[in-house]
Amino acid sequence: MLILTCPCCGVTAEETEFHGGGEAHIKRHGPGSSDDEFHGYLFEKVNPKGVHFERWRHANGCGKWFHAARCTVTLEVFGTYSAQTTEPPQDIKDRISARRPGWSWREFA
Amino acid sequence: MKRYSAFAVAREALRNHMGWERAWASPEPRKKYDVIIVGAGGHGLATAYYLGKNFGITNVAVLEKGWLGGGNTGRNTTIIRSNYLQDASAAIYEKSRSLYETLSQDLNYNIMYSPRGVMMLAQTQHEVRGYERTAHANALQGVTTEFISPSRVKELVPIINLEGPRYPVLGALWQARAGTARHDAVAWGYARACSAMGMDIIQKCEVTGISREGGRVTGVSTNRGDIACDKLGIVVAGHSGHLADMGGFRLPIESVALQALVSEPIKPCMDVVVMANTVHGYMSQSDKGEMVIGGGADGYNNFTQRGSFHHIEETVRALVETFPMISRLKMLRQWGGIVDMTGDRSPILSKTPVEGVFINCGWGTGGFKAIPGSGWGFAELMAKGHSPLTAEFGLERFREGRFIDESVAAGVAH
């Protein structure tokens, strides 16, 4: 059972109050993008064994979307943060680096 | 390999059972094989078996990082059925079911196939229409199923409560020739037959890298040294993405935990498999008398093989509603397995961007029933480069928009 804190309304609750929304920080390519880019956006999800960034919705609460950083192997939650970003904020990255030394994701660690 | 038979049992009884040999050998890996299969679960072993049996390719190694059949093969609820909606799915699952019928004789190993019948309850008007449609589709595909009335449901399953407080039973999709089998025995039987053909099954051998040269596979590195091969088959279910990373390509797969539980053993009370997908739970009774219960998957990426309490609660609540007599049953064990889910809930049996590397994954919540058919088709794909059974299940179907949409059609409990 995950325990998540909604960064929108500040409520800390069990996972039954939330609904998972899949991989976060997916880049949707605009007009003129190639088939490959669109295929990647639609289907090629990352499926990491370890640190993962996800979208969650506070479905039985404030109803807002937010992001969570989580480990898929231990179910440890590193933190939650606003969905209005294109990458995890520095304090979340620092917290992950402290817990998982040598960790990296995409172009930054 | 000494054959198992009634005569063999009698012979061994007379000499204190000293003559039984190991079912399969545990050799050291050789330097090179024609074909390496990664993953000694049901699908991997079945692939190796049909490579040898149908195509005479026996210079094969099956590598397994843990122990044989210790992944989802040993964690499922052993249900075998083929009442799928789409033609491509019905073809491979029906091939599989029909191979299961004679698998014990074929392998000379009792897999305890029990064609006891599988019933999928329709508890909403939507489900009634869905299952009637499936029954019609199955008739065209040559899969024998029928839509049955509530009174027939009660006749087949006396312990069921038709007037559920939330969802009364309005009918059911019934496949009389579906059933269950002993899951471990399927892996063990295939392993024994593979070993008898001279194949090497190497346990505790984890693949750590895939070697390539000019876009073609040359071998794998493992914790027991490098092993060269001409062809590589990746059959590792939940860990497919991990292996694909080593090969430098990506898969449209996400791994989630699916869980099951069994009760204490009780006297025989239900001799069919019942799936109730609206309320989310399914149940059958094992030969030992335990009620085998399966539920939904966790709703997020997950590599913990354990599951979660609120899903148990949801499943058990649904089943108590459907079968009031189990309300005081004690649960004995609970476990989880990592299933690999594709977007259209259909498997991937395909070539990959790396020449010589083939992948068999994405069976999601329903892999056990497909083991013989999957092995049959995947072996053909690996040996000949194409197979009618697997043609529709290529990786390119996502790019081309040719989904085999079973997410709703199959009525699988997700």
Summarize the structure.
The complex is a heterodimer of chains A (109) and B (414). With 109 residues, chain A is an alpha+beta fold.
Question: Would you give an account of this structure?
Answer:
The complex is a heterodimer of chains A (109) and B (414). Chain A has two helices and six strands, in the order βββαβββα. Chain A is of the alpha+beta class. Chain A has a domain at 40-104: Folate-binding superfamily (Folate-binding fold, 2-Layer Sandwich), CATH 3.30.2270.10. In chain A, the strands form two sheets. A four-stranded antiparallel β-sheet of chain A has the order 3-4-5-6. In chain A, strand 5 (65-71) and strand 6 (77-82) form a beta hairpin. Chain A is globular, with a radius of gyration of 15 Å. The two termini of chain A are 28 Å apart. The relative contact order of chain A is 0.20. Chain B is α/β, with parallel strands linked by helices and 414 residues long. Chain B is built from eleven helices and 18 strands. In chain B, helix 2 runs parallel beside helix 7 and helix 2 (42-55) packs across helix 10 (371-384). The longest helix of chain B has 17 residues, at 125-141. Chain B is globular and about 65 Å long. The two termini of chain B are 42 Å apart. Residues 409-414 of chain B have low confidence and may be disordered. Chains A and B meet through strand 3 and helix 1 of A and strand 12 of B.
Task: Write out key terms for the chains shown.
heterodimer, A: 109 residues, alpha+beta, Folate-binding fold, four-stranded antiparallel sheet, 6 strands, globular, B: 414 residues, alpha/beta, D-Amino Acid Oxidase, Chain A, domain 2, 29% helix
SSE layout and pairing:
The complex is a heterodimer of chains A (109) and B (414).
Chain A: E1 3-5, E2 12-14, E3 19-23, H1 35-42, E4 51-57, E5 65-71, E6 77-82, H2 90-99
Antiparallel strand pairs in A: 1-2, 3-4, 4-5, 5-6
Chain B: H1 6-13, E1 32-38, H2 42-55, E2 60-63, E3 79-80, H3 87-101, H4 103-107, E4 118-122, H5 125-141, E5 146-148, H6 150-156, E6 171-175, E7 179-180, H7 183-196, E8 200-202, E9 207-213, E10 216-222, E11 225-234, H8 240-247, E12 253-265, E13 273-276, E14 281-285, E15 290-297, H9 309-322, E16 331-342, E17 348-351, E18 357-361, H10 371-384, H11 397-400
Parallel strand pairs in B: 1-2, 1-11, 2-8, 4-13, 11-18
Antiparallel strand pairs in B: 3-7, 4-6, 5-6, 9-10, 10-11, 12-15, 12-16, 13-14, 14-15, 17-18
